[in-house]
Amino acid sequence: MELSRELDEWKARVDRALSGLFTGEAPYGRLTEAMRYSLLAGGKRLRPILTLKFCAAAGGEPEKAMPLALAAELIHTYSLIHDDLPCMDDDSLRRGKPTNHTVYGQGRALIAGDALQAAAFELAASAPLPPERVVRATRYLASSAGAAGMCGGQELDTAEDSDRSLPGLTLINDLKTGAMLRAACAVGVIAAGGDGEELSAAEDYGLHLARAFQIRDDILDVISTPEALGKDIGSDEHNNKPTYASTLGIQEAERAVMSESGQAAASIRGKFPDTSFFEALADLLAVRNS
User: Fold this and answer.
1) Would you call 197 exposed, middle or buried from its count of C-beta atoms within 10 A (0-12, 13-18, 19+)?
2) Distance CA 199, CA 214 (A)
3) At what angle do helices 62-83 and 131-145 cross, to 10 degrees?
4) DSSP readout, 24-53?
5) What is the pLDDT along the chain (290 residues), one digit of tens a residue?
6) How far apart are the C-alpha atoms of 288 and 290, rounded to whole Å?
7) d(CA 4, CA 194)
8) DSSP per position, 56-79
9) Which of 113, 166, 214, 270 has its CA 20 to 30 A from that of 255?
């Protein structure tokens, strides 16, 4: 099946599942409205798709991993809401729409992010899988989202005294972006009951894919437009934050994207019965324009 069509089909499955969340009437309805606003605003759904596809690759049943896949997307969405706040990047556009705090105010946006994070772990715990797999997967997500993962990366990214050399920049992005992409891949394998070589391969793939994704993001932040990306551009330059593009230069950054993409593909080749989807995805994301 052509990759773009396969991605569209898996994205549609994820979107259908997401659309059923937070729909009931409640006295705190404006909060759930704000949660759904960002959750259903679009996006590639890369993390949940990776969870489902790695579950299938490891011999599992993707539908049983769906709560874990959705949990990864809820965590990602909450992080975007918080990342856009005035106390962080102070962005006004996300996925082609006004950011959450622009529409609902800073207070409600903050609470919407908090509530999405809590709901993510409620969902993860509900996965119809053997209890030991649910515990392992939920713990993996929590560790990857917390101080040792995404939140730690955000702290380093916002701290004025952080190391901004190339190794320091790589550490920031390995935590801020890489930890949850890696988790999305690993959790899929865990959901299928996989371990050992399969789990290590999925983790390595997620890490290198995240590096390629972030470097490409930094390039697009320089050469693209808000209309094409659906979000504000140039905020890192405005906030005097070094990026791969500013540190390496565009041409060297482009080479780094291809190198990391190649390492992602190589890390899983031969580790699963069929890795064609994952290899093609790494190639596609390396040249994406949005």
Assistant:
1) exposed
2) 23
3) 20
4) S--TTHHHHHHHHHHHTS----HHHHHHHH
5) 589 999 999 999 999 999 999 998 999 999 999 999 999 999 999 999 999 999 999 999 999 999 999 999 999 999 999 999 999 989 999 988 999 999 999 999 999 999 999 999 999 999 999 999 999 999 999 999 999 999 999 999 988 888 989 999 999 999 999 999 999 999 999 999 998 999 999 999 999 999 999 999 999 988 877 766 666 665 665 566 789 999 999 999 999 999 999 999 999 999 999 999 999 999 999 999 87
6) 6
7) 27
8) HHTT--HHHHHHHHHHHHHHHHHH
9) 270
Q: How far is CA 16 from CA 51, 106, 136, 206, 238, in A?
A: 16, 28, 26, 25, 37
Amino acid at 194: G
What letter does residue 234 receive in the DSSP assignment?
S
How many degrees, rounded to 5, is the angle at CA 122 between CA 121 and CA 125? 80
> Taking the model in full, what pTM does it have?
0.94
In whole angstroms, what is the distance from residue 207 CA to residue 201 CA?
Answer: 10
In sequence order, the 6+-apart residues with CB closer than 8 A to the CB of 80 are: 38, 94
Phi, psi of 93 (to 5 degrees): -135, 135
How is residue 269 written in tokens? Answer: 């080749």
The amino acid occupying position 108 is R
Q: Which domains does the chain have, with CATH numbers?
A: 3-286 (1.10.600.10)
